[in-house]
Design goal:
By secondary structure, the chain is of the alpha/beta class. 45% of the residues lie in helices and 15% in strands. Strand 19, helix 20 and strand 20 form a beta-alpha-beta unit. Helix 13 crosses helix 14. The radius of gyration is 27 Å and the shape is globular.
């Protein structure tokens, strides 16, 4: 149901943050009965809609659209404005919301040449209710977000539409601007190159498209008085003590009213494992001599004899008497490094750099610098660095110049930041698996919206191998065979190294005449849109790292459609089932044909890290049918363990952030 109360609240609070009024809601209800009821609600945090419900819900809208087709542009805008005014005043919202959506639907037809589908109208209504809409890939989530943003912005709310990266934010804004212009609604987007003055102008517009990290960093910059020399904390104190109003016009982000998060599970779940940090260069206690000593000594230590690698918890455990092979650090370093406790700390960091962080998996080298690769999306993150000397140790490991260490000066978690919005909503293709966490952390109910057309995706039989080389050869052979039959092929891998290995196998062991082969990983990030846009052409093979959150539609040509549609090959399962679904969901979009196949191995990264009885037995079975069955059991167990571990990490991150907030009142706090 449409949330009329919150819409009126948005209207009544035009600049919530400028006067420093709003903090996130208290996550711990003082009343035990309320807390217990909230926990019970989390078990029913998913609502599934049938296609008939979407059709019934949109019936009145389509009828109104037929009427508005006879209106000229001026009369259509008048009708829309009257509907918005009635939404703010009246209690019975459904008729007026139908009118508003019908006006937007007719405007979409006049600007883009198509009418929204019934499920898109339903998705927009879910967003305006402050809920999360799960819509399959290819169902037009960009249009759904635009419908909701148009209605909310017209009511007087400041609307932020969040994407996983800058490119998608700019693309979606440019694509939807004609619709916003039709109703004289101002819109813009944020890019990383923008100066503060330009950012202020963009955020002041009614609708702003921005990546999640850019938005959070801009809010943290406001806290650090980067623009007007006055933090929100200082402004609040001046107002309380001297009755002096702050110069709020100079804040970068003036308000947090209504937020629509695209690829919500990627932003609100996957990126929530670590806080967002603003740091500055500073002198570190970890001197370069100490770092070099630690790395040299760590290379002398022997696994299982001096230390144990814990892949499940991504940690190193030092064993007793590991010091017997360790020489003393240089005499010139600080006295603290001559104590056993500090030596153990830096040696453990060095072992982490050597054994837990790998080139072309966790990071790449670009322009003689270490660039972290986002595990969830496969994209490079050039502005990120590891803390507490780890980044410098990895630079030493790869033979690069050591960069200056950085000191954290402000930080906040996504979990705490997004609860500051008056109305939060989201869109994604995969959210059902994390519905309880969405409710418990963000109070977002997941609404599963059916596809506009019946899904025609075909699942091919799983092909499970005992060795990695056999797997990659099978992947290459299958991709070439399918592509030569006219289908485009998308091969999904977990790491840069794996994607390049697949390419080598395809080039070495197959006749590729007549085929077009593309590689998309962190090294080709700038060509992402162009590569993915051509991935739907017949006889094209695209090898890509994680497709979660890429957001670019793979459009099929006629030959590809007639040949069976896009064929997806999953070569390795991820820690989260959602990311696997994101990859598989690339095929058979919008009622097209499509297929997918899993070609996997018992030595894949996830199974190796989370070994279980099914994996041990299966890796010694030569009967293909039985081996495939055991693999599915082993993978289910491993993914459950991995997802539980990631959940614990996110909850610990949130807990630490709340504790830090209480201890240091100015960290990330909008006062």
């Amino acid at each position: 149901m449409f949330n009329s109360v919150l819409l009126r609240k948005l209207r009544q609070n035009p600049l919530v943050l400028s006067e420093g009024g709003r903090e996130e809601s208290n996550p711990n209800h003082p009343n035990k009965l309320i807390r217990t009821f909230s926990n019970l609600q989390s078990f029913y945090a998913v609502k599934s809609y049938r296609r008939s419900q979407a059709t019934s819900s949109a019936k009145a809208i389509r009828k109104l659209t037929q009427q508005y087709a006879t209106y000229d542009d001026f009369k259509l805008r008048q009708c829309f404005e009257l509907a918005i005014k009635s939404l703010i005043i009246n209690k019975d919202m459904t008729p007026q919301l139908n009118i508003a959506q019908a006006c937007v639907g007719e405007a979409i037809y006049r600007t883009f040449g198509f009418y929204p589908h019934d499920v898109q109208y339903l998705g927009a209504r879910v967003l305006l209710s402050g809920q999360l809409a799960e819509m399959q890939t290819g169902e037009g989530k960009t249009v759904v977000a635009a419908i909701a943003a148009t209605i909310a912005a017209a009511s007087g709310a400041a609307v932020h539409v969040l994407s996983t990266n800058e490119y998608l934010a700019t693309r979606d804004c440019e694509e939807m601007t004609p619709l916003f212009d039709f109703f004289s609604i101002s819109s813009g987007s944020i890019s990383s190159e923008m100066e503060i003055e330009e950012r202020q102008k963009q955020y002041a517009l009614q609708i702003c498209y921005v990546s999640a990290s850019e938005l959070v960093f801009d809010v943290l910059k406001d806290e650090l008085n980067i623009t007007n020399g006055e933090t929100r904390v200082k402004a609040s104190l001046n107002k309380f003590i001297h009755n002096i109003l702050s110069n709020s016009d100079q804040h970068i982000v003036p308000a947090l009213h209504f937020c629509i998060v695209d690829e919500a599970d990627s932003v609100l779940i996957d990126e929530a494992s670590t806080p967002l940090i603003i740091s500055q260069e500073s002198e570190s206690i970890m001197e370069k001599l100490v770092l070099r000593w630690a790395l040299d000594e760590a290379r002398k230590l022997i696994e299982s004899k001096d230390f144990i690698v814990d892949l499940v918890n991504n940690d190193i455990e030092l064993l007793k008497n590991f010091e017997r092979n360790i020489s003393l650090p240089p005499e010139s370093v600080r006295p603290m490094w001559h104590t056993k406790a500090w030596q153990k700390l830096i040696l453990k960091k060095a072992l982490n750099a050597l054994h837990l962080f790998h080139l072309d998996e966790h990071y790449i080298i670009a322009e003689e610098k270490i660039v972290i690769v986002d595990e969830a999306t496969g994209r490079p993150m050039p502005d990120r660095s590891w803390e507490q000397g780890l980044h410098q140790l990895i630079e030493l490991k790869e033979g690069l110049d050591i960069s200056n260490t950085r000191q954290t000066i402000a930080q906040i978690t996504f979990q705490r930041f997004f609860k500051r919005y008056i109305l939060l909503a989201g869109l994604t293709g995969t959210a059902a698996e994390v519905s309880r966490e969405m409710w418990n952390v963000y109070e977002l109910k997941v609404c599963i919206i059916p596809p506009n057309r019946k899904n025609l995706r075909k699942k091919m039989s799983t092909n499970c191998h005992l060795t990695q080389d056999d797997k990659w050869k099978s992947v290459a052979d299958e991709a070439v065979k399918v592509a030569k039959n006219g289908q485009p092929v998308l091969i999904g891998t977990r790491s840069v190294e794996s994607s390049e290995k697949v390419l080598d196998f395809i080039n070495k062991n197959n006749n590729n005449e007549g085929l077009t082969i593309h590689l998309l990983n962190a090294r080709q990030n700038e060509q992402e849109a162009d590569i993915v846009a051509r991935a739907g052409l017949s006889k094209t093979i695209t090898i890509a790292t994680n497709m979660a959150g890429r957001g670019t539609d793979i459009k099929l040509d006629e030959t590809a459609k007639n040949s069976g549609g896009l064929h997806v090959i999953l070569t390795e399962h991820h820690d989260s089932k959602r990311i696997d679904r994101q990859l598989i969901g690339r095929s058979a979009r919008q009622g097209n044909q499509g297929s997918y196949q899993e070609i996997v191995c018992f030595n894949d990264t996830l199974l190796f890290a989370h070994k279980n009885i099914w994996q041990i037995i299966g890796s010694n079975i030569y009967l293909p049918i039985l081996r495939t069955y055991l693999y599915s059991r082993a993978m289910k167990t491993a993914q459950n363990r991995a997802q539980q571990r990631q959940y614990e990490i996110r909850m610990n991150t949130l807990k630490q952030d709340r504790t830090r907030q209480k201890q240091i009142g100015f960290i990330g706090k909008l006062k």
